Amino acid sequence: MEKLEAHLSRCPNCREELASLREVDRSLSRLPHEYAPSNFADEIMDCIRNGTPKAQPVEKRWWAVRLSFIRDLVAAAAVTLVLFWTGGHLFDSQNVNLAGQKMDIAVQTYVRVPVDAFTRVYYTVDSLSEQLLLKEWNSNEVRESR
Amino acid sequence: MVTDELLVHRAKSGDLKAYEILIRRYQHKVYDLAAKMVRNREDARDLAQDTFIRVYQNLPRFRGDSSFGTWVYRVASNKCLDYLRKKKVEGERVVLSTFENDVHFSDSRDSPEESAIREDENRRLRDALDSLPKAYRIAIILQHYQQLSYKEIAEVLELPVKTVATRIYRAKIILREKLTGGEAGAVQAGKGKPGQLPGKGISVI
Asked: Touching check for A55 and chain B: CB below 8 Å?
């Protein structure tokens, strides 16, 4: 503030600028305050007591409803097909048993050695998934060679 | 005096009387803001009332991150800016100086001549305010008439304080030119394209 005042004391341009801006402030001050009507608050309270209208949901057109239904149906069919064709190989009973055994080992390791538990679980699951993939790969190769 | 925080707490618990006290505390400020933004008493009344109803509806979600006053001003400012935006889209003139319900300012103690002079002076002032882009107008109304600090205005408008300071300064430059009969564009010489005001994304209404 002191720096500003010091600058103003030796800069006529800035003094003039400041004076003109203060004149704008004085002009603005001539516009009086507007007061709310006397029943203003009562009207709002009446509105609140009687319940304000709530936003109405936009009604969907029939073709929009039908299109969204068809879209959902197609998506569900696609997911079912993907699961049927790809999941059929991965989730046979032998693989699921093997996964269960490995997971059991992973959980036991985690309970016994809590310090590096996370790392062990991670590597066990990683090796499990690798074994599953290898198994799947080999069975595919055997099938193709026949 | 009971604090806003306590009244908000009571209103949240379903105490309508507490909310009524809050309305009475802020009604004139919000109405004045709306009247100066839209220059039409009927619309100002609707906008101010909508503000308090909106605030009431959203009261359960008010976490007190800002003061109640700041929140009320924010809702009111957004309502006014939306109103002006819609009016612009509809291609209507917002300045209704020839309408019956236009905001007039006169003092009953004045003689007819004095009253006419005062009316004329106020009309010039109102025209100058209305000529400001709405982003500048709201900033200067909050600063000059609502007496908010730059920091409070920044909170209301959700802008950096520096942007608020720049907008208020530029608004005053434009007002000065308008009130002294100069051209607003003259002050921006070399600072932008013709018809465009200084500042990012600020267009002339």
From this structure: no
